[in-house]
Structures are given as structure tokens and as C-alpha cells.
Amino acid sequence: MTDQITYYAIVDEDSTPDRPVGVFRRAKGNGGQVDEVFSRHLKWEFSPLLYSAERGDTTYDFISITQDEADQIVARIREAAEPAE
Q1: What residues contact 23, with CB distance under 8 A and at least 6 apart?
Q2: Domain boundaries, the chain
Q3: Whose CA, among 9, 46, 61, 76, lies 20 to 30 Å from 15?
Q4: What contacts 30, CB < 8 A, 6 or more positions away?
Q5: What is the residue-averaged pLDDT of the chain?
Q6: In what order do the strands lie in the sheet with 61-65?
Q7: pLDDT(72) > 90
Q8: Nearest in space to 74 (alpha carbons), one of 46, 36, 27, 42
Q9: What is the largest CA-CA distance in the chain?
Q10: Quick one: pLDDT at residue 82?
Q11: Which residues of 39-77 are buried (b: 16+ CB within 10 A; e: fewer)?
């Protein structure tokens, strides 16, 4: 069972919190901790990115966001991936 999920906007030098390069979530529960990024495959997949950032990798900044903000980013990613008609 998941006790807490924290969402993050992934930001680099060419993006902003409003238009991040991606979205990330960390779920903590009885089974431990799971880190996932919403991938180009349009699903949540394991990622070591936040763990790396916590240990000094400065490639990306992780800005805490709400679940609603994360849902909006995911929707934007899905929309951008849809084929044009």
C-alpha cells in the first residue's frame, strides 16, 4: 500500500516549471520507495534520476508539484504524442 506520493516537475536549463521536460513521482509505502518518470512510452517507468540528483547530479532540477499539476503535464505529454489527423 502506498502511503505517500510526491510529484516533481523535471526542469533543465532549457525548460521551466510551467513547461518542464518531464514529470516524476516518488511513492513511499510499506514496501519501500519507488521512483518513476512518465516516459516517452506514455507510462510510468522506474527511473534513478531523482536518486542521482540527491547525490549531486545537477543535470536536472526537481521541483515539487501537486498531483493536479502532474496530471496536467502528463496530459500535455500524451496530447503531444498523439498522431496528427
Answers
A1: 7, 8, 9, 10, 37, 38, 65, 70, 73, 74, 77
A2: 2-81
A3: 46
A4: 1, 3
A5: 92
A6: 44-46, 32-38, 22-29, 2-11, 61-65
A7: yes
A8: 42
A9: 45
A10: 82
A11: eeeeebeebebbeebeeeeeebebeebeeebbeebbeeb
